[in-house]
Amino acid sequence: MNTRRTYRCALLASAVMAAGLLTSAALAASQPASQAVRAAATAAVAPVVTKTYSVIVNTDGTLAAGPAGASSNNFGGNYGYFEVIFPSDVSKCVYTATLGDPSPTFPALGFISVTLRSGNPNGIFVRTADTNGTANDHAFHLHVQC
């Protein structure tokens, strides 16, 4: 093993030991330091739990498709304001929405914006508007990734 590689492995091992992921006993084991460091780093990676929700909401605010426990509402009228409630907290998630009908037709052109629903960590607030920016109800697709 060349000197430069040995030095890098020693630095990495020191950093891993400082983080509490590897003990000096593990380094003294029969396997080379670089393998011990790799094994400790792999063991230290916590499993990532993700969740994904997707819904299709009709123009009148009713849910056309979505997961069990989800609901939607357009607050009545033709104001372009909707809320979508999911079965768990989505406050630390990414929200993506696009105008789109549940049927195979061309959706109306317009704008859509999304944000977390104030006062409800399980909810997303959606606003739709026509091409002039005037609030108007539109069907949409919403995807949430956590």
Short description:
With about 150 residues, the protein is an alpha+beta fold. Helix content is about 25%, strand content about 30%.
What would you say this structure looks like, in words?
Keywords: Signal. Residues 1-28 form the signal peptide. With 146 residues, this protein is an alpha+beta fold. The chain folds into two domains: 3-44, no CATH class; 52-145, no CATH class. The chain is built from three helices and eight strands; from the N terminus they run αααββββββββ. The protein has helices spanning 3-18, 24-28, 33-44, and strands at residues 52-57, 63-65, 71-73, 81-85, 94-99, 111-116, 123-129, 140-145. A hairpin with a 5-residue loop joins β1 (52-57) and β2 (63-65). Mean pLDDT is 79; it is low at 3-28.
Summarize the helices and strands and which ones pair or pack.
Layout: H1 3-18, H2 24-28, H3 33-44, E1 52-57, E2 63-65, E3 71-73, E4 81-85, E5 94-99, E6 111-116, E7 123-129, E8 140-145
Antiparallel strand pairs: 1-2, 1-8, 3-4, 4-7, 5-8, 6-7
Oligomer: single chain
Low-pLDDT parts are 3-28
Count of the domains: 2
- How far apart lie the N and C ends? 43 Å
The major beta sheet can be summarized as: 4 strands, antiparallel
Structural class: alpha+beta
**Strand element count:** 8
Number of DSSP helical runs: 3
Q: Strand percentage, roughly? A: 25-35%
Radius of gyration: 25 Å
**How are the strands ordered across the major sheet?**
2-1-8-5
Share of residues in helices: 10-25%
Shape: elongated
Question: Mean pLDDT, rounded to whole units?
Answer: 79
- How would you spell out the order of helices and strands? HHHEEEEEEEE
Keywords: Signal
Signal peptide: 1-28
